[in-house]
Amino acid sequence: MSQKILIVGAGFAGVWGALGAARVLDAASISPSDVEITLISPKPELQIRPRLYESEPQRMAAPLLPLLEAVGVKYLEGIVSEISVHDKNVIVVGANGQQRTLAYDRLLLTSGSKLNRPPVPGLVEYAFSVDCIEDAIVLERHLEQLTKLPDSRARNTVVVVGCGFTGIEVGTELPQRMRKMFGPDAAIRVVVVGSQPEIGPDLGPNPRPFVSQAFDSLGVEAVLGSGVVSIDADGVLTASGGRIEAKTVIWAGGMRASSLVAQVSSRLDPLGRVEAALDLRVAEAPGVFVAGDVARALCDDNGRYALMSCQHAIVMGQFGGHNVAADLIGVPTLEYKQPFYATCLDLGEWGAIYSEGWDRQIKLTSAEGKARKQIINTQWIYPPAPNRTEALAAGNPQASYG
Which residues form the FAD/NAD(P)-binding domain (predicted)? Predict the structure, then answer.
């Protein structure tokens, strides 16, 4: 009877985790009939989530079946609803609602994160998001429908709630999209609202002057230091009592790790991530490893932790996949390391900012930054071609960070 490796989730960590695990078995000349790797997700595709602020979000998915087949990884369509650490099995709910139980010898949990939706009145009923392709499509259809409404200040106004990375990228993308909808002379208004006193609170001081310059150039307003306390069909109310009339409200209020992590550990950080050992295993759950947005993992020797980003998820997935397979066949695991860190923030028609280092030293801005962002968005974060040699090489955790 073959041994089983299950990978839960087909985000960046899950896809590169599958490649990393397959690479270990290939190097050890272990056939899929002896150790079976199965990737479980609702759809056999990788949603290119960092691009969902762009138009045509339906294009932002990379098919996975040819790639998985090339490296001998099985695919199972479904959603994991329960993980039993004691029994070493998971319950998978299929598209038809039927449940099945799958046993595992090793489990790599890469179920990702979801948009944090606190109990703000009206958020569920009236706010849009770019959390997943389906949400982004709903937003795009709504924006298209606005052209059928009479011209008004509320119709031409979009409020973006959240002044972090996603809020900034959404906010700076919208002026150009709205001018295409309403005409170049339309009196459009984009307002980014945040409870923090500064734009991009996690970006640090170096990028902020460029973000402010982009906002000024594009006509994007920032209302800071007062969060949104309620949303309705005609706008938002802020904590300071201000009212912004808008037919479109986009929520970008931060992320929370998948709730599945609470089934493998009680040691969770404020973002809901599980505390991971240096090789990404979960101490409380024998045979379970984590990677991506569900893992609170040290990424260097200076005490820095990986962020909820595709940049960290890809490399963490490589390590997680390597380790889940290595641990099963008795090969030493590797400590996750990712000392290099870069940030590329899209700022719409103004361009983009590319920085390196945790102190975000600015390297490229404006058009040069935009060119780098486009390479990242259209090439670097996509899975490799479904060629076995190329795909297995992409699973090597030490290729770039060894």
Answer: 4-317
Give me 320's structure tokens. 């997680």
**Contact (Cβ atoms closer than 8 angstroms) between residue 178 and residue 186:** yes
Domains of the chain by residue range: 3-52+60-114+255-339, 123-251
The residue type found at 102 is L
Residue 99 confidence (pLDDT)? 97
**Spatial distance between the Cα atoms of 240 and 258, rounded to a whole number of angstroms:** 32
| DSSP string over 194-224 | ESSSSSSTTT-TTTHHHHHHHHHHHTEEEEE
**What's residue 402's pLDDT?**
41
Distance, in Å, from the CA atom of 399 to the CA atom of 51, rounded to the nearest integer, reads 25
Spatial CA neighbour of 374 closest among 46, 51, 13, 12: 51
pLDDT of res. 400:
61
Q: 123-251, what's its fold?
A: FAD/NAD(P)-binding domain (3.50.50)
- CATH 3.50.50.60 given to domain 3-52+60-114+255-339: yes
- How far is it, in rounded angstroms, from Cα 47 to Cα 40? 14
pTM of the model: 0.96
| Closest alpha carbon to 39 in 379, 315, 324 | 324
